Amino acid sequence: MERKTGENFDEKTASDIFEKLKNVEGKIKSKSEDGKLKNISNIMSEAKYAEEKGNLDEAIKLYKQVIFELPDAAKAYDALAKIYQKQGDSQAEKDLLKKAIANCSKNEEFKKRLNEI
Predict the structure, then answer these.
(1) Residue 115 and which of 15, 39, 60, 101 are 20 to 30 A apart at CA?
(2) For residues 109 and 59, what is the distance between their CA atoms, to the nearest angstrom?
(3) Per-residue pLDDT tens digits for 52-76
(4) Which domains does the chain have, with CATH numbers?
């Protein structure tokens, strides 16, 4: 049987498949969640730019804002920990890594870094 786009399913079957697929991850992101993620992405970009320009205080503030909005934002934890490391603030780095371990599902790298301090 030759398959052609748009001719394989009736609307009911397609709707049923769509419902099953969207429930695989729990739910589809709402438009407001999508906007929130875009905002977080913009804040991350601003933080990276501030860091590149040497404005570490501003970068720290922005990375903390990302973590507040998205507590499992591994990239923000990673970047912030590196700033604390550059500044020689090992206590702040340790505290942050502990928080990252608690909040991020992929936390093995954070555990390793914490043990190295």
Answers:
(1) 60
(2) 22
(3) 999 999 999 999 999 999 999 999 9
(4) 30-116 (1.25.40.10)
Determine how many CB atoms are found less than 10 A away from the CB of residue 76: 26
Q: What Rg, from alpha-carbon coordinates, does the chain have?
A: 21
Name the 3-class secondary structure at 1.
coil
Confirm if 28 and 19 have CB atoms less than 8 A apart: no
Residue 5, both tokens: 């786009």
pLDDT digits (tens, 9 = 90+) for 79-116: 999 999 999 999 999 999 999 999 988 888 999 999 99
- Read off the pTM: 0.68
Closest CA to 67 of 53, 55, 80: 80
